[in-house]
Amino acid sequence: MRLSNVVMLPYKMGSKSAKNLAEALSNRLNKRVRLLYTDERSKFVPKAKHIVINWGCSRPNKDYSGCSDVINPFDRVLVAGNKLSTFQAISDYNVVNQNEGIQVNIPDFTADPAVARAWVNAGFVVVCRNKLTAHSGDGIVVAAREEDIPEGCPLFVKYIKKKKEFRVHVFDGQVIDVQQKRRRSDYTEQPNFAVRNYHTGWVYCREDIEEPDQLRSQAIAAVEALGLDFGAVDIIYNQHANTCTVLEVNTAPGLEGTTVDSYADAFIRLFWSNIHAT
Question: Would the CA dihedral through 36, 170, 259, 197 be positive or negative?
């Protein structure tokens, strides 16, 4: 393995996080980490010498199977990028590992609107996802009545009340960073406590975080369940039940500042450990 052959394939060329990470790795390796085009402009020819960092790409434009390594396999990123297939994969993982004591907590979910209607009629709030691959709350409808459930929705999830919400960055089986969602100081409207994102009054912070006991173990198990090398796991914490619940795993999380350095350092450690192993 030669570290001069590291390249990065982002899910889109406009990914600021991929650019930030490629620059940080280039500085550490003292060698440019090439950011590949993801469309017909790409003249890159994958070869056995290349180490490909897959930053959220699920449908590659070329055949990378002959490369030395693809960090985060394309097929696993495809699963993680879909909310329904993520829950299904984790459910399968829980069944396989039920006798080993390894279980990833996820909310109850269904693709059957009749089940969703039964839930709201029983007094539960249901999060209806019109888009399986959306982010930042796009395509979400929160339903408390049967008539609020939209037609043609592919995924319904039982809403779980949360005291806190975290993003836990896992790399090669280890936690490399933990962030917590907190209210934006510059947000003047009423924050949305059900769907928390930047546009509804929330930002990620890393100061003075009190981690629930299960937080890290749940994050590590979720990434393992999806067969990923790395991922940023969104987890909510219900104080009454003292339970952490995994909502999704991001394979191209937003990176800036300290988090860029955490990922760059983790990749360098992985590269060097692979060199020593060979």
Answer: positive
Nearest Cα neighbor of 216 from 251, 172, 170 is 170
User: What's the 3-state SS for the chain?
Assistant: CCHHHEEEEECCCCCHHHHHHHHHHHHHHCCCCEECCCCCCCCCCCCCCCEEEEECCCCCCCCCCCCCEEECCHHHHHHHCCHHHHHHHHHHHHHHCCCCCCCCCCCCEECCHHHHHHHHHCCCCEEEECCCCCCCCCCEEEECCHHHCCCCCCEEEECCCCCEEEEEEEECCEEEEEEEEEECCCCCCCCCCCCCCHHHCEEEECCCCCCCCCHHHHHHHHHHHCCCCEEEEEEEEECCCCEEEEEEEECCCCCCCHHHHHHHHHHHHHHHHHHHHC
The top-level CATH class assigned to 73-105+161-250 is: alpha beta
Residue 153 near residue 126 (C-beta atoms within 8 A):
no
What whole-number distance in Å separates Cα of residue 154 and Cα of residue 131? 7
Q: What is the pLDDT of residues 234-271, one digit of tens each?
A: 999 999 999 999 999 999 999 989 999 999 999 999 99
Q: Nearest CA to 28 among 47, 52, 4?
A: 4
Tokens of residue 235, six digits: 């987890």
End-to-end Cα separation, the chain, in angstroms:
8
pLDDT in tens, 127-185: 999 989 867 667 789 999 999 999 889 999 999 999 999 999 999 999 999 999 887 76
